[in-house]
């Protein structure tokens, strides 16, 4: 019951990490509003699962890259549930591509979704939290890619470093309002974003072998850390970045 009586908003929550976090927050007694852009049936299945846990949920379809989508998503949650207590910025894309011939459209879209979208959404949620006057928690899903490079991720890694930096700056800007801002940095998590990249069994085995815990991550591995940062268990934690990577980052030798 860590989030009893609270409302949680999560972007990109029809699948993957967002979905796992939405369900986990519902298990912790929160009502949940999810944003999604893809399959409506997937989004509705998340809503159904949350309701099966005895909580309420809504799904709002919009593109986080559109600045107007942020205040609209927050307003829908306020109308449905009366306020915003926790905001999880999760929506992101990573169309793998080489650096030297990176299409302008791919770079631009990745920046707009991953970084600009996070900025718009966090800003809208923060404004609502400030207006409510009771504080809140903002959690951004960054990546281990904020700390390390990737040959086919030159457009992606800067956005995740930016999201991590955004949380650090927002922790300072919003601390006076009782709003905590933190990020989680997942390692290789098996989701739709890297399905094609991990399709080769040999590559999957090679990547898993580099991880001290001996396996690739799954979306549910992020749900607990996100819940912790969202809850009052982390009431004195702000501006922090939590690696959730099975030990991959520290395995340098």
From TrEMBL:
Pathway listed: Carbohydrate degradation; L-rhamnose degradation
Major enzyme class: oxidoreductase
Lineage top rank: taxon: Bacteria
EC number, UniProt record: 1.1.1.378
Reactions this protein catalyses: L-rhamnofuranose + NADP(+) = L-rhamnono-1,4-lactone + NADPH + H(+); L-rhamnofuranose + NAD(+) = L-rhamnono-1,4-lactone + NADH + H(+)
Record has Oxidoreductase as a keyword: yes
Record key words, sorted: NADP, Oxidoreductase, Rhamnose metabolism
Similarity-based family: Belongs to the short-chain dehydrogenases/reductases (SDR) family.
Record's protein name: L-rhamnose 1-dehydrogenase (NAD(P)(+))
Biological process, per Gene Ontology: fatty acid biosynthetic process; rhamnose catabolic process
UniProt feature coiled coil, ranges: none
GO molecular function, a single term: quinone binding
